[in-house]
C-alpha cells in the first residue's frame, strides 16, 4: 500500500502540473469563445433552387392526369406527395387538422401549408369545399355589400343639425366622441363647411369617419369668403386654419417663384406645408387669377 501512495519529488511535480493543465483546459472550454465556422446561405441561390423544385413539381403534375375535385382537408401523406406537395407542407396541414381545425378557402390552405403561388394555382381549381362553406361566403359577401352601400345625398341626415344622441347610433361613436363632434362643429359659425372637417375631431379614426359619412353629410353649409391664393397677403393666409406666419411667407415665396399657382396640389411642394391638412386648407381658398394678369 505504501508504494501506491508514496511519490518522489518529480512524480509530485508531474501530478501537480497535470492538475494545472486539467483546470486550465476546463477554464478555456467554459470562458473562451472559440471562433466557429458560420454557414452563410445565399438567398438568391436558395430562391433559384426553390423555383426549380416548384417547376419540377408542376411538370410532374402536368404529366399526370388532372385530379378530380377534392376537399383539401383530407389530404394525407400519399395524396400530398402525388399532388406535388413537400413533406413539410403536408406536415403543416396534418398538424392543423389534428387540432380539429378546417381549411375553408384556397387562401387559408396556402397560409396553413406554405405552398408556393405556382403550386397553389395548379391545385386550387380542383378544391371542393362543402356547400355550407360556399353559402357562408355568399352570406358574408352579401352582408359586406349591404354595409358598403352608401345612401344618396338626399337620404342622409344633415351633419350640421345632428344631435349627439343621433351620432351615437354610429358604431364606434360613443358619448365622448359625439360630444367632441358637436363641440367642434359649434366652433364654426353655421357649423361644418364640409364632411372632411371631421378629420379635425380628436379620436375619430378614418373607419369611424367613413361610417359617419354613410349616414350624415353637410347639407346646409355656411358660406365662407374664400381667399384667392394668387392674391392673398400674409395677413389673409394666417386666418386659414393650419397656416401660421412662417408658412404664409413660404407660400407667397413659392408663388412668386412659380409666377402664380395653377393648382392647389402645388402647395404640397411648399416648405413645411402640412400635407395631411391640404383638404381642410382648400376649403378656404380659391384660384381665380395669376399674379401676372
UniProtKB/TrEMBL annotation:
Matching Pfam families: HHH_3
Native organism taxonomy: Bacteria, Pseudomonadati, Bacteroidota, Flavobacteriia, Flavobacteriales
Name of the protein: Helix-hairpin-helix domain-containing protein
Transmembrane segments: 12-32
Classification via InterPro entries: Endo/Exo/Phosphatase_dom_1 (IPR051675), RuvA_2-like (IPR010994)
Keywords, alphabetical: Membrane, Transmembrane, Transmembrane helix
